[in-house]
Amino acid sequence: MTQRPLKAISFLGFNKRGYQETTYVNPVQLGEFKTKFVQEALVEFYQPDTLHVLLTKTAETGISDDEMEAKSRITMATLLKNQNI
User: Fold this and answer.
1) Would you give the DSSP letter of residue 80?
2) pLDDT > 90: what percent of the chain?
3) Cβ distance 8 to 47 under 8 Å?
4) N or C: the chain end with fewer CB closer than 10 Å?
């Protein structure tokens, strides 16, 4: 029987303070891996053929929802001012 490729799916959100290094323990074999991201530990422990990491919009842009909303308000105010509305 042919083994199917191992695929892993994970999520990454936004952390204003950044991520801290953590020691992850392999639940299948003896071993540890230190990293800031659990995704790296998953790859180290399970060696998937593919890893898909889904990001929140904030994680993708590095801009929090509050900052995005404030920028949006400033942009709208500037547009209205420039249009003399």
Assistant:
1) H
2) 46
3) no
4) N
Under 8 Å CB-to-CB from 43, ≥6 apart: which residues?
8, 51
pLDDT score of 59 more than 70: yes
Reduce the DSSP state of residue 12 to 3 states and report it.
strand
What is each CA distance from 53 to 10, 14, 29, 47, 69, in whole angstroms? 5, 13, 24, 15, 25
Collect all residues with Cβ–Cβ distance below 8 Å to 41 and sequence separation of at least 6: 24, 33, 35
* H or E element at residue 66: helix 65-82
Task: Provide mean pLDDT across the span 59-72.
Answer: 75
Residue 5 CA neighbour count, 13 Å, CB half: 5
